[in-house]
Design a protein that fits this description.
This protein is α/β, with parallel strands linked by helices. 35% of the residues lie in helices and 29% in strands. It has 3 domains: 58 residues; 69 residues, membrane protein fhac (Ubiquitin-like (UB roll)); 129 residues, Rossmann fold (3-Layer(aba) Sandwich).
């Protein structure tokens, strides 16, 4: 069904293109050609040259529209479009595939679609990335999208109301981090940092306290968090073995052992 719809769309575009060409030729011949003198060689050369000149003028890109831009750099977009226009202004020969790829390499831009609206209109639509988190790597901070793409480096992560991600496996496990926040939405607003470890285990910082979570029964382990809210100077709670014992650490470096309740 989808291939049939695509075929119909292509057919409509082809018909529109042929109609445009036909109208152009009819108008041109009516205004510029003296058919009585057309048989002369010099007149033929003049007509051919005139046709090609008018062909380029008729299909010269005169209008470019841009939709969907919000945070991406407008000057960078204009620069790429201008560079391609300097190669050719003819809409038929304009390289939409190349400029689409170049635009999608820019910060913030996720997807680009470009339509040629004959005879001279280029319509560009972009979809920007949705910011999701701050990725911490070797004392550098990067704004990342909900697809795990690095958008750009940032200097002050605290200026963003976004969760921070750590761990070399964070980007490839971005969906796990997203699902974790969705599934635990009752505390997600209190989570300031998630660290994804090599064994896919999570450490989370909730209200400035580090909680080490287990590989399994995460939901049950998270229910224990509220029990530690009122402990003064608390820095860390180790819930990896919460079914048997829980380790806690305060800023006085004392470690306490709790039995299961």
């Amino acid at each position: 069904m989808s291939s049939f719809i695509k075929y119909k769309s292509l057919s409509k575009i082809s018909i529109l293109f042929l109609v445009s060409i036909s109208i152009f030729l009819i108008l041109f011949l009516k205004e510029n050609v003296n058919f009585e003198n057309f048989k002369k060689t010099e007149n033929k050369d003049f007509v051919y040259k005139k046709i090609f000149n008018n062909y380029d003028n008729f299909f010269e890109i005169k209008k470019i529209t841009l939709e969907g831009r919000s945070k991406s750099n407008l000057n960078s977009i204009k620069g790429l479009v201008t560079t391609n226009l300097n190669k050719t202004k003819n809409i038929i020969n304009f390289d939409t595939v190349g400029i689409k790829a170049s635009l999608e390499d820019l910060n913030w831009i996720d997807l680009v679609s470009i339509r040629k609206i004959y005879p001279n209109h280029l319509a560009i639509r972009i979809e920007e990335h949705k910011e999701f988190a701050i990725f911490n790597k070797k004392n550098e901070n990067f704004l990342i999208s909900d697809k795990g793409k690095i958008i750009h480096e940032i200097n002050n992560p605290d200026a963003y109301e976004l969760v921070q991600l750590e761990g070399e496996f964070s980007l490839e496990n971005i969906d796990k981090a997203k699902n974790f926040l969705v599934e635990n939405n009752e505390i997600s607003n209190h989570i300031s940092k998630i660290t994804i470890l090599p064994d896919n285990r999570f450490n989370v910082v909730v209200d400035n306290i580090l909680f080490k979570l287990p590989n399994k029964n995460i939901k049950e382990a998270l229910l224990k968090i509220n029990k530690f809210k009122d402990i003064k100077n608390l820095e860390m709670v180790d819930l990896r073995f919460f079914e048997k014992k829980i380790f806690i650490k305060t800023n006085s470096e004392q470690i306490a052992l709790k039995g299961k309740k």
